[in-house]
Write a structure and sequence with these properties.
It is a single chain. By secondary structure, this protein is an alpha/beta fold. It has one domain (8-254): Aldolase class I (TIM Barrel), CATH 3.20.20.70. The protein contains 11 helices and 8 strands. Strands 1-2-3-4-5-6-7-8 form an 8-stranded parallel barrel, surrounded by 5 helices. Helix 1 (22-34) packs parallel to helix 2 (50-57), helix 5 (108-120) crosses helix 7 (141-152) and helix 7 (141-152) runs parallel beside helix 9. It is globular. It binds 2-phosphoglycolic acid. 2-phosphoglycolic acid is lined by residues 12, 168, 173-174, 211-214, 232-236.
């Protein structure tokens, strides 16, 4: 992991969470306040929970959305704009998650348009990329992910240095199968090269998160790898006790305080 970039530990609740679960946000915020980790902490929640989650978080952790529309407003029934997320208290948004690409047919250019909209609204943006199991078996993983960076991350956003990338191999999401340390390190090294080619010096400081079955059992090793600038956590972000255990894996000594 870079010694200059403060890691981002981000949760993704996906389509989980009712009012009754908001106390988990309170518990995570309280724990971060009591023992601040050497990391930025973000939990991305369904739009229905955003404003209450932001209130409960009280600035101790950041709250984010899980997707946004590329337009500011308009006749898009059921969609939510980046401005709306911001208005509800979001500081960040995930775009291009593989579940959006798969179930909603989102393409790279669509993801790039969403990322740009989020950036214009002042949200930090996490752009997700990742290869399928077949692509990995064919030996195409590096090329696929490099292409996804090129078509999903707008160059001006990359140059702003405000975006993060989340590398989430599809076969690792929710499966309990985590790539080997060598596979993660190889991919993150490749993504760093792609980011520097795309955005010059700013590309060197863009955080590249790893996501896919991250738990306290593997976070230690993953966070210790070169060019891993944090993690994006699905299942293990739903309960404060699990998320907190991941936070405690952040190696404090490596980072300068924010
Ligand atoms: P997981 O999900 O941690 O449950 O594998 C990660 C993600 O999809 O962001």
């Amino acid at each position: 992991m870079s010694t200059t970039v403060r890691p981002l530990i981000a949760g993704n609740w996906k389509m989980h969470g009712l009012s009754a679960e908001l106390h988990e946000i309170g518990a995570i915020a309280a724990s971060v306040h009591a023992r601040p980790p050497a990391a930025d902490v973000l939990i991305c929640v369904p739009a229905t929970l955003l404003s209450r989650a932001a209130q409960i978080a009280a600035g101790r952790i950041a709250i984010g959305g899980e997707d946004c529309h590329a337009e500011v407003s308009g006749a898009f029934t059921g969609d939510v704009s980046a401005d709306m997320l911001k208005d509800a208290g979001a500081a960040a948004v995930i775009v291009g998650h593989s579940e959006r690409r798969l179930h909603h047919g989102e393409t790279g250019p669509m993801v790039a348009a969403k990322a740009k909209a989020a950036w214009r609204s002042g949200l930090s943006t996490i752009v997700c990329i990742g290869e399928s199991e077949v692509q990995r078996r064919r030996g195409d993983a590096l090329a696929v992910c490099g292409d996804q960076i090129a078509d999903s991350l707008p160059q001006d956003l990359a140059r702003s240095g405000t975006a993060a990338i989340a590398y989430e191999p599809l076969w690792a999401i929710g499966s309990g199968h985590v790539p080997t340390a060598d596979q993660i390190a190889e991919m993150h090294r490749h993504l760093r090269t792609c980011l520097v080619a795309l955005a010059g010096a700013a590309g060197a400081s863009i955080r590249i998160l790893y996501g896919g079955s991250v738990t306290a059992d593997n976070a230690d090793e993953v966070l210790g790898l070169p060019d891993v600038g944090g993690v994006l956590i699905g299942g293990a972000s739903l309960l404060a006790v699990d998320f907190d255990a991941v936070l405690r894996c952040v190696p404090e000594a490596l980072f300068a305080p924010a």
